[in-house]
């Protein structure tokens, strides 16, 4: 499970060192793809395979499902960390997420997310107010 927030830097070759707490789960390979809110999702190969099986169930007759799958899967890029635990983020994905040198890598349960540090801070500031003001059950069975 991916938990926590880390602040690595992107190097001049588009590489980032994986947080130590994420390395074991991602050591054998991972998939980076476009996420929502202009971040990048990072899945272990096994989790991405499971996710792919679930999204394959979407009806082809649904334009919204086709559109989502095209955007999600066309950005998918397999990676294997090098000996220094670095992965390379392709230029197109760096542009999509607006990544600069300073990053925020967050744990989101079944995946990690890579954000531009400034964009993450802005998102978190906006969402923390909404989070503390929630008065009804958002996720069934939670609180």
UniProtKB/TrEMBL annotation:
<dbReference type="InterPro" id="IPR035644">
    <property type="entry name" value="MraZ_C"/>
</dbReference>
<dbReference type="InterPro" id="IPR035642">
    <property type="entry name" value="MraZ_N"/>
</dbReference>
<keyword id="KW-0963">Cytoplasm</keyword>
<protein>
    <recommendedName>
        <fullName>Transcriptional regulator MraZ</fullName>
    </recommendedName>
</protein>
<dbReference type="GO" id="GO:0009295">
    <property type="term" value="C:nucleoid"/>
</dbReference>
<dbReference type="InterPro" id="IPR020603">
    <property type="entry name" value="MraZ_dom"/>
</dbReference>
<keyword id="KW-0804">Transcription</keyword>
<comment type="similarity">
    <text>Belongs to the MraZ family.</text>
</comment>
<keyword id="KW-0805">Transcription regulation</keyword>
<feature type="domain" description="SpoVT-AbrB">
    <location>
        <begin position="76"/>
        <end position="119"/>
    </location>
</feature>
<comment type="subunit">
    <text>Forms oligomers.</text>
</comment>
<keyword id="KW-0238">DNA-binding</keyword>
<dbReference type="InterPro" id="IPR003444">
    <property type="entry name" value="MraZ"/>
</dbReference>
<dbReference type="GO" id="GO:2000143">
    <property type="term" value="P:negative regulation of DNA-templated transcription initiation"/>
</dbReference>
<dbReference type="GO" id="GO:0005737">
    <property type="term" value="C:cytoplasm"/>
</dbReference>
<dbReference type="Pfam" id="PF02381">
    <property type="entry name" value="MraZ"/>
</dbReference>
<keyword id="KW-0677">Repeat</keyword>
<dbReference type="InterPro" id="IPR007159">
    <property type="entry name" value="SpoVT-AbrB_dom"/>
</dbReference>
<dbReference type="InterPro" id="IPR037914">
    <property type="entry name" value="SpoVT-AbrB_sf"/>
</dbReference>
<dbReference type="GO" id="GO:0003700">
    <property type="term" value="F:DNA-binding transcription factor activity"/>
</dbReference>
<dbReference type="InterPro" id="IPR038619">
    <property type="entry name" value="MraZ_sf"/>
</dbReference>
<feature type="domain" description="SpoVT-AbrB">
    <location>
        <begin position="5"/>
        <end position="47"/>
    </location>
</feature>
<dbReference type="GO" id="GO:0000976">
    <property type="term" value="F:transcription cis-regulatory region binding"/>
</dbReference>
């Amino acid at each position: 499970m991916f938990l926590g927030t880390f602040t690595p830097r992107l190097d001049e070759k588009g590489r980032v060192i994986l947080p130590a707490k994420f390395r074991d789960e991602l050591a054998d390979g991972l998939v980076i793809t476009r996420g929502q809110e202009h971040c990048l999702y990072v899945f272990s190969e096994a989790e991405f395979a499971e996710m792919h099986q679930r999204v394959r169930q979407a009806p082809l007759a649904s334009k919204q499902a086709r559109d989502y799958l095209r955007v999600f899967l066309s950005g998918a890029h397999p990676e294997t960390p090098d000996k220094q635990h670095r992965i390379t983020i392709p230029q197109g994905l760096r542009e999509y997420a607006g990544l600069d040198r300073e990053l925020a890598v967050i744990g989101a349960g079944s995946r990690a997310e890579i954000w531009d540090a400034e964009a993450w801070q802005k998102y978190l500031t906006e969402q923390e107010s909404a989070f503390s003001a929630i008065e009804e059950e958002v996720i069934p069975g939670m609180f």
